[in-house]
Amino acid sequence: MTAVLREEARVTPLELFFDLVFVLALTQCTALMAANATWEGLAQGLLVLALMWWAWTGYAWLTSVVEPEEGAVRIVIFAAMAGLLVVALCIPDAFGSEALLFACAYGVVRYGQIALFLVASRDEPALRHSVITGLVGSTTISVALLVGGSYADTGLQTALWALALALDMAGPLLFGVQGWKLVPGHFAERHGLIVIIALGESIVALGAGAEFGVDGGVVAASVLGVVVAAALWWLYFDVVALVAERRLSRAAVGEEQNRIARDSYSFLHLPMVAGIILVALGMKKTLGDVEEPLKTVPAVALLGGAALYLLAHVAFRWRNLHTLNRRRLACAVVLLALLPLGLELPAIVTVGLVAAILSALILYETLRFSEARARIRQELAHQAATE
Fold first, then answer.
1. Mind listing the pLDDT tens digit for each residue in 332-378?
2. Where are the domains of the chain?
3. How many other C-beta atoms lie within 10 A of the C-beta of residue 219?
4. Separation between Cα atoms, residue 284 and residue 208, nearest integer Å
5. Fold for domain 184-205+212-387?
6. Fewest C-beta atoms under 10 Å: which of 6, 94, 212, 304?
7. C-alpha separations of 319 from 59, 85, 180, 262, 267 in Å
8. Which helix H or strand E contains 285, and what residues bound it?
9. H-assigned helices in 91-183
10. CB-based contact 114:61 (threshold 8 Å)
11. Is the CB of residue 143 less than 8 Å from the CB of residue 103?
């Protein structure tokens, strides 16, 4: 089997097809937390989400090196999709009867990535060295801990799986990023699309939450939910995603560019996606009964998820521009400060507060930085046209 190295920056239809399986995984993570709306259920849902994320982002790195639609590579991608589908199907019982199947299917997904990397690096000794010395080791330890944890009781299983995730994600920090390759435009676009997929899950959660009929309260809460989802989209795609892509593209090819990609995308996009999924959980519980206050965990999911999303943006900007976004930091603090009220007010009012705070933030940033915003967007549009 041979692999063709990627040259174009576009995301291919096969990659979008692959990401559709991740949609199911996100939905299953929300369902896992909704079915067990306790601190334990929340921790388990976020842990599984992080495991799924690390598998997905590995394929984002892979398809930024190889052309996924060339030769037999697409067959391996299809096999990985099948494995990822099995993993997603196991999520509701990942801490029960399906733990071992989850771990084994997850291993198939991860080792499929490694196999393709080894094929792609035949004529790239630096890349092959990074794969063998770093990726193979961290993946093997992680999968072994997942399989071993599947035989343990729930508490020990959770601890072992958390350790597996931590060691796996520590691999790029311990072994460095030398030798890795990527296409900046493709890499940034791929992560932007996964943010859209996560936002789509928040819309799906609205529909899933309205399972007992549609009345005036449900309609109002649904509209407010769309406002929240639209605000989360705006906060990322209006300027942030564009500036981050430009920063990645302009970085020196090699270690500097790889470090930015690792930190800004592989690491910091995880709390962004987790924040969106937590908001989706809060919205799902809100539509269950819009007039009753949210219970503790759903309230933390809604308000804390929105705050986590903003804090990830603060860290994202700091990593790329080394400046602090005080406005988004302040809004995150306000959202967290509203938690006591979220436990007392009707759920629809809490959602309305989240929608109002995010909308006010967008309005302020749009008016306060209108000239800079317009200039950045014009510069990037001109750059795209000339390329």
1. 999 999 999 999 999 999 999 999 999 999 999 998 888 877 787 77
2. 1-181, 184-205+212-387
3. 12
4. 7
5. I/LWEQ domain (1.20.1410)
6. 212
7. 23, 33, 20, 11, 11
8. helix 269-288
9. 99-120, 125-130, 136-149, 154-174
10. no
11. yes
